[in-house]
Amino acid sequence: MTEVRVRFPPSPTGYLHIGGARTALLNWLWARKNGGKLILRIEDTDAERSTQESIEGIIDGMTWLGLDWDEGPYFQTEFSDDHNRAAKQLLDSGHAYKCFCSKEELDNKREAAMAAKKDVRYDGTCRNLTPEDIAEKEKQGIPFVIRFKVPQIDGKVAYEDKVLGTIERSYDDIEDFVIVRSNGKPLYLLCNVVDDIRDRISHIIRGQDHMSNTTRQVLLYQALDARVPVFAHMPLTLDLQKRKISKRSHGEIVAVQFYREKGFIPWALCNFLALLGWNPGTDQEIFSRDELIEAFTLERIGKVNSVFN
Q: What are phi and psi of 18, to 5 degrees?
């Protein structure tokens, strides 16, 4: 059996909030249930918003909750060479291409598509440039991004989700998406996949708000000749107005530190968070650590968003 390896990859742009703590908890439970490993990976590529204070807050919050990790913390910015090598590999293998379309050109095409009530998507202008065309544009110093070349074939890209079942999306519905910016920096989509491959991640347990990325990431795993992890997309945590819980909208009330300062017992908060969107299949509501680890399964994560009150 493949070793269970999961990750919690927060962005250090603020405190550890309830939604992030819940994600960390479910990954921790799955690792502990299976004798696996939890990797803490700090996704610090947003240099303008990432802070040392946030990094310390995330680590302190997880430590207070008792969610110990087995590897890390790793920092995404330390692996930029891996990300750049992967981008070059995709270019060399024909799974990606350089796109020289300017922002103005793309904006004009977008406006024209909207006026014609057509799909707003990249039209593949640079998809089949010849090596000579590319060399000439590079000689002229025209900036470019790197786009992933989505297969133009019939059928669907699919993956199995432990919560939602089989998820499929037609190749025709996926545009050639950008994986490297014009400044040469790889985007989150690619960095995330490359890091998961390097860290040998077996299961990705995260919120359903990431599902728009998943089919594109599956294509990247396949193009990089890597095993696709098992996915489990859990329901979101909402407020009483059915809005997604966020640091920006809800302030300190959704910060783990708030409950620490109010004298909450760490495991009591974990117990509460576990039952937000997960059903043990019994009437039991209070679990010890060992009981919760024993009871936890991915299949009993609910499909419907939960309300934090």
A: -60, -45
| Order of strands, sheet of 5-8, starting from the edge strand that comes earlier in the sequence | 5-8, 37-42, 71-75
Say if residues 54 and 14 touch (Cβ distance below 8 Å).
yes
The position carrying tokens 């502990």 is: 32
Q: Confirm whether pTM is higher than 0.85.
A: yes
Strand partners, 207: 234
Tokens, residue 234: 């859990």
Nearest to 149 by CA among 130, 132, 171: 171
CA-nearest of 153, 166, 203 to 8 is 203
Round to whole Å and give the CA distance between 266 and 174: 43
Q: Assign a CATH topology to domain 5-77+189-307.
A: Rossmann fold (3.40.50)
Mean pLDDT of 260-271: 96
Mean pLDDT of the chain: 92
Q: Which residues in the chain are classed under CATH 3.40.50.620?
A: 5-77+189-307
Name the architecture of domain 82-157+165-187: Alpha-Beta Complex (3.90)
Delimiting residues of CATH 3.90.800.10 domain(s) in the chain: 82-157+165-187
Considering 88, 247, 262, 303, which one is annotated as catalytic? 247
Q: At what angle do helices 188-198 and 211-223 cross, to 10 degrees?
A: 60
- Whether the per-residue pLDDT at 251 is higher than 60: the answer is no
247 is catalytic: yes
- The reported pLDDT for the residue numbered 208 is 93
pLDDT for the residue 246: 60
Give CA–CA dist 124/115, Å, rounded.
19
Tell me the average pLDDT across 54-59.
94
